Amino acid sequence: MLITIQPAYKYIFVDLDDTIWDFHANAKSALYDIFYEVKLNEKYDDFENFYGIYAKRNLELWTQYSRGEITKDYLVIERFLCVLVEIGINDKDLAQEINSRYLDILGSKTILIPYAIELLELCVEKNLPVTLITNGFTQVQMQKVKNSNLEHYFSHIVLSDTAGALKPEPAFFKYALDLNNARPGEVLVIGDNYDADILGAINSGIDALFFNTAGRKVELPERVVEIKSLQEAIEFLNA
After folding, report:
1. Cα separation, 83 vs 95, whole angstroms
2. Can you state the angle between helices 23-37 and 92-106, rounded to 10 degrees?
3. Count of alpha carbons within 13 angstroms of residue 67, beta-carbon side
4. 8-state DSSP, 181
């Protein structure tokens, strides 16, 4: 099922959200808390539909953000305002309140993707330095890492704010490579976002494992292997 695209790597670059840290589960938990905290349930009582709309809109906006089509400020307000408008509540102040609480709460959630710790432990055993690569907002991402007790696994943490570029931009990956004094052929990227993680890696000459939990249909480039679980990533590194 898996093939080895290179006998050995010296560095691992891994994404955070929905690769190591279960964004969907944690975001849903945070928004469930907020839904009742701000008494949104008194205006709209279907949390599951509210969350479903949010998940769809948030993904669309993050895709636009990673392409440089919208700003961070636009994203953080619009992702909740558009949801409220869709359920019949046009209230910008409420959208801002939800966003503020969301940014406060999200980083406290600690659900990880299955086999995330086992994968990171394997990298430690194999003396493979792991660099975390993420487009997320610095304060929130660092809270996620700290509260999930992941800090000690990473030799470096590269955020778009510090890199001065977003995945999939080559400048982001060059920043991570330079930080490790690594060559592209020495690195393996593991990520779930095909457009940001995988294409970004390939366009920078880096091999990749595409963690395709969404079942996206795509013709994979030669230097990419598809995995459906982090257990498969462990098998790959042990091959």
Report:
1. 9
2. 130
3. 10
4. T
Judge whether 5 lies within some domain.
no
Q: Please answer whether residues 189 and 208 qualify as being in contact, where contact means their C-beta atoms are separated by less than 8 angstroms.
A: yes
Instruction: DSSP letter for 112, please.
Output: B
Asked if residue 6 is part of any domain, the answer here is no
Asked if 140 and 218 sit in the same domain, the reply is yes
| Residue 83, domain CATH | 1.10.150.240
15 and 34 together in one domain: no
Residues spanned by the domain of 28: 24-106
Please tell me whether residues 226 and 127 are part of one structural domain: yes
Average pLDDT, the chain: 95
> In percent, how much of the chain has pLDDT > 70?
97
Ranges of residues in the chain whose predicted pLDDT is under 70: 1-7
Report pLDDT for 1.
40
Angle 92-106/72-86 helices, nearest 10 degrees? Answer: 120
Q: Write out pLDDT tens, residues 87-123.
A: 999 999 999 999 999 999 999 999 999 999 999 999 9
Task: For residues 67 and 70, give the distance between their C-alpha atoms in angstroms, rounded to a whole number.
Answer: 8
Q: Are residues 100 and 141 in the same domain?
A: no
Give domain status of residue 145, yes or no.
Answer: yes
Q: What CATH number is attached to the domain comprising 230?
A: 3.40.50.1000
- What is the distance between the alpha carbons of residues 61 and 149, in angstroms, rounded to a whole number? 29
For position 114, what pLDDT does the model report? 99
Q: Please name the residues in contact with 55: beta carbons below 8 A apart, sequence gap of 6 or more.
A: 24, 27, 28
Q: Cis bond leading into 168, ω under 30°?
A: yes
